[in-house]
């Protein structure tokens, strides 16, 4: 087991201290009803999941290559800046990797809070019109199939968060570190059921964490296929609840 796994398997270490103006009873939320054996899951090798990731990773990458020229044109006509947005995020075992997305926001530098993560809000003025379409259809996340092929991500799993958000929530929820026992996913139980988008709400993140831990505990070939179909349906019906 790596040093990170040992650290979390024995005793969770705080990533950073973040002041929150909420009652202590809320800060100590723990998902005791969903026990996760971190060490066992960390070492678990699921052949069926590796097969799904390889198959859909190849298919998704081919789709990415086909639609790239059209989406690149739409982005360039909408906003100055790169086509692909790269952001460091935390994945399996807390490892840092560059997550790829089609850029959907203007590149102007805004002042960010020093105490809270910079998140995308509903009707965020930084998102250009074509970017709204990409987010609503989930097409902005197509480049992440490259992350799946590279092994940074899985097709289905907990959402991957930027480093600052991971630090923020890791100091809030005692069980948050258990998400690092598996690879993050393009979609997952939380994402497919509408729990997505930027948030600093303790209660909303609590619900997302419950879904993430439930998925980690119950994940199966059938469950992954079901979540994939649910995600495709939400994309086709423009009901992704993204912002």
Task: Give the tags.
243 residues, single chain, two-stranded antiparallel ribbon, disordered N terminus, 4 strands, 46% helix, globular, two-stranded parallel ribbon, mainly alpha
Q: Count every helix, treating DSSP H or I runs of 4 or more residues as helices.
A: 10
Work out the radius of gyration: 18 Å
The total domain count is 1
Order of helices and strands: HHHHEEHHEHEHHH
Number of strands: 4
Instruction: Give the helix level as a range of percent.
Output: 40-55%
User: For the residues shown, what is the average pLDDT?
Assistant: 83
Would you tell me the structural class of the helices and strands? mainly alpha
Largest sheet composition: 2 strands, antiparallel
The general outline is: globular
> How are the strands ordered across the major sheet?
1-2
Poorly predicted runs are 2-27
Strand content: 5-15%
First and last CA, distance: 38 Å
Descriptive notes:
By secondary structure, the protein is mainly alpha-helical. The protein has one domain (34-107, 115-236). The protein contains ten helices and four strands; from the N terminus they run ααααββααβαβααα. The chain has helices spanning 3-10, 24-27, 38-43, 47-78, 129-137, 144-150, 163-170, 189-192, 202-218, 221-236; strands at 84-90, 96-102, 154-156, 185-187. Strands 1-2 form a two-stranded antiparallel sheet. The chain has a two-stranded parallel sheet with strand order 3-4. β1 and β2 form a beta hairpin. α4 (47-78) packs antiparallel against α6. It is globular, with a radius of gyration of 18 Å.
């Amino acid at each position: 087991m790596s040093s990170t796994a040992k650290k979390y398997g024995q005793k969770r270490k705080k990533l950073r201290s973040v002041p929150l103006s909420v009652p202590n009873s809320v800060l100590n939320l723990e998902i005791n009803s969903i026990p996760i054996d971190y060490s066992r899951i960390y070492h678990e090798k699921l052949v069926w999941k590796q097969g799904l990731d390889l198959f859909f990773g190849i298919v998704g990458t081919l789709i990415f290559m086909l639609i790239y020229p059209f989406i690149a044109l739409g982005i360039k006509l909408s906003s100055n800046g790169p086509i692909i947005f790269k952001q460091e995020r935390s994945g399996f075992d807390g490892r840092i990797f560059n997550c790829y997305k089609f850029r959907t926001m203007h590149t102007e530098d805004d002042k960010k809070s020093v105490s809270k993560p910079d998140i995308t809000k509903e009707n965020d003025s930084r998102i250009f019109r074509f970017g709204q379409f990409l987010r609503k259809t989930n097409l902005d996340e197509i480049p992440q199939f490259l992350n799946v092929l590279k092994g940074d991500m899985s097709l289905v799993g907990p959402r991957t968060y930027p480093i600052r958000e991971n630090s923020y929530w890791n100091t809030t929820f005692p069980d948050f570190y258990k998400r690092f026992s598996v690879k993050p996913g393009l979609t997952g139980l939380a994402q497919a059921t509408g729990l997505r988008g930027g948030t600093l709400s303790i209660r909303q993140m609590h619900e997302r964490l419950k879904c993430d831990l439930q998925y980690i505990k119950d994940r199966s070939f059938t469950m992954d296929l079901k979540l994939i179909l649910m995600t495709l349906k939400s994309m086709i019906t423009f009901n992704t609840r993204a912002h």
